[in-house]
Every structure is written in C-alpha cells, then in structure tokens.
Design a protein that fits this description.
Order of helices and strands: HHHEEHEHHEHEHEEEEHEHEHEEH
Oligomer: single chain
Strand content: 15-25%
Mean pLDDT: 83
Helix content: 40-55%
Radius of gyration: 22 Å
Distance between the termini: 47 Å
Number of strands: 13
Length: 301
C-alpha cells in the first residue's frame, strides 16, 4: 500500500467522484481510477460503490477512511518536522453541527483564513453530537466544534477522557416567528408557552438545544412539532414559509428579522456555550495552529 494510493482514495471519498478527485489532485481520471483499483486489489475489498457517475463508500471504504486520514496526516507531520519553521499549511478537517456554524466559530474561521491562507479547511456536518468521540477516535476529523459540555455515552467515557475542550464563545437562544404570524409575544417567549406553538425543530437527540430539551422534559411539556428539519438553513426557510416558529441563535436572529420574521428571546434565558473538542496528542501542525489561534484573543471582534 502506497501513500499516494491513500491520497487518491481520500480525494475520491471527499469528492464522491473520480472526476472531482482528478481535478483536485491535478491528474488524469485514469490515474485516479487505476490507483483506486490497485488499492482494492491489494486490500481484496471493494472500497466504493459506483452509482451512475458518482462514487459512494462501501462498508470497507468507511472502515479505511479514518486510518487513511491519520496516515496521510502523519506523513505530512513527518515532513514538516524537519522544516526550520513550524508549518501551518495542509488540510484541516473539522466537524460542526449546522446550528453551530453561525456562532463564534464564524469569526474564528475568518481569522484563520486571514492568518493561515495556505491552510485548507474542510468543514463537515455533524448530524449527531454523540458521534463526537467516534469521529475523533477514527481520525475522520481532527477537531469538532460543538456545544459544551459535549455529550458522550457511557461506552465512550474512556475514549473521551483523552479529549480536550476549548471554549470559544456563546450565543443566546431566540424564537423566530413566521412573517405575519398572529399573537406574537411583545417582548419575550416564556418557556411555559412553547407547547402552544407549532415548531420547526431539529430531530430529537441532535444535541443542538440539550438544556432546553431537558427543561421541557422535566416539566412534562410537549411542543407541537410542525416539521423536523435537520439543516439550519432549511429550518429557517420552513419558518419563513409559515410552517411554524423555530429556534435561532444571535446571528441567525438578524437574518430572520431581515426576512420579515419576528424574533423574541426565550425566558428563562438560554445561553449555549460553544467550543472545540480535540485529541491533543493527535493534532497535525495545521490543527495545532488552529487551536493556538482559538486560544488567543487575537481573533475575537
């Protein structure tokens, strides 16, 4: 197995096509295709399912994904270790729930782009916060940006003990009402009134608003679910279209108002802390530079 084969395998996995991988790598389609076929023959496993012009990972491909990323990162770190100056380039994989993207992370990413223009950031959607420990352990990403404290199952406690966290900020939770919605509260939305509102929500267990879910559960209150939508942008669109009210953070609240929505703060106040979760012993030079920037006050507006 050669390092180049793993690079080509990861490029196909990321682009979900051979043509996209070839474009990213600057090589021909046949070069990528032959490399992937050679790797499959060596491993005696099918790594991709060919669907039309696209490529989707097989179960064997998913199993190889994390180890392949660790090997490629390790090779880059070995190369950078002999350089006279610490390297800050290369690829950095970060997993982020959709609700966290439009949070203090936005400012941190902007500062990273300005400070390290040679760094390539790959942001993937974290659909279930409970996957945090597994994604980091498997090497599928180096950093997870999510709410703190992050959720871990009893089976994940040992692996999670190796992880570090770094708070980067917080945002308040609001309720956005569709344009023209009747009986919008004048100032704020009391938590006890939420069960009377049709709501557009993320799926249960997503971990996006755990304190709110816990508070409602303790009071034995059930919200009226008009729709369950995974993506933040889709929830906003459904709310604007009149499907129901939805929860938004500080930054998204401004966008909702610009689209004609009425935004009210939840009472009692719910503040969501956001931070980075990572394994300090397994960070690439790019990831270490990103964490160091996050720990400094330089990027904060």
């Amino acid at each position: 197995m050669e390092l180049q084969q793993l690079r080509y395998f990861l490029a196909v996995a990321d682009n979900e096509s051979i043509s996209g991988a070839a474009t990213d790598l600057g090589v021909t389609l046949s070069t990528v295709s032959q490399s992937v076929h050679a790797l499959e023959r060596e491993l005696e496993a099918i790594l991709f399912h060919r669907v039309g012009r696209g490529m989707t990972l097989s179960s064997a491909g998913h199993a190889l994904l994390g180890p392949a990323r660790r090997i490629v990162r390790g090779a880059a770190e070995a190369r950078d270790s002999v350089l006279p100056e610490p390297a800050t380039g290369g690829r950095l994989d970060i997993a982020v729930p959709s609700a966290t993207v439009n949070s203090p992370l936005t400012d941190l990413l902007a500062a990273c782009f300005a400070r390290f223009p040679e760094m390539t950031l790959h942001i993937r959607d974290l659909t279930d916060e409970r996957e945090t420990t597994e994604l980091l352990a498997d090497g599928q990403c180096e950093i997870v940006c999510t709410k703190l404290p992050f959720t871990r199952t009893p089976a994940q406690q040992a692996a999670a003990a190796r992880l570090a966290t770094l708070e980067i900020g917080a945002y308040d939770l609001h309720v956005a009402f569709p344009p023209g919605a009747p009986a919008v509260p004048a100032d704020s939305v009391d938590l006890s009134s939420l069960p009377d509102l049709p709501m557009v929500l993320p799926r249960t267990g997503s971990g996006l608003y755990p304190d709110l879910e816990e508070e409602l559960g303790q009071g034995q209150r059930r919200m009226i679910v008009a729709a369950m939508v995974e993506q933040r942008e889709a929830r906003m669109a459904a709310m604007i279209a009149g499907a129901g009210a939805t929860f938004v953070g500080d930054r998204t609240a401004h966008a909702a108002v610009a689209h004609g929505a009425a935004v009210r703060q939840v009472v009692p106040k719910f503040r969501q802390t956001v931070g980075l979760v990572y394994d300090p012993a397994r960070l690439s030079p790019a990831a270490r530079a990103f964490v160091a920037l996050a720990a400094s006050p330089d990027w904060r507006p």
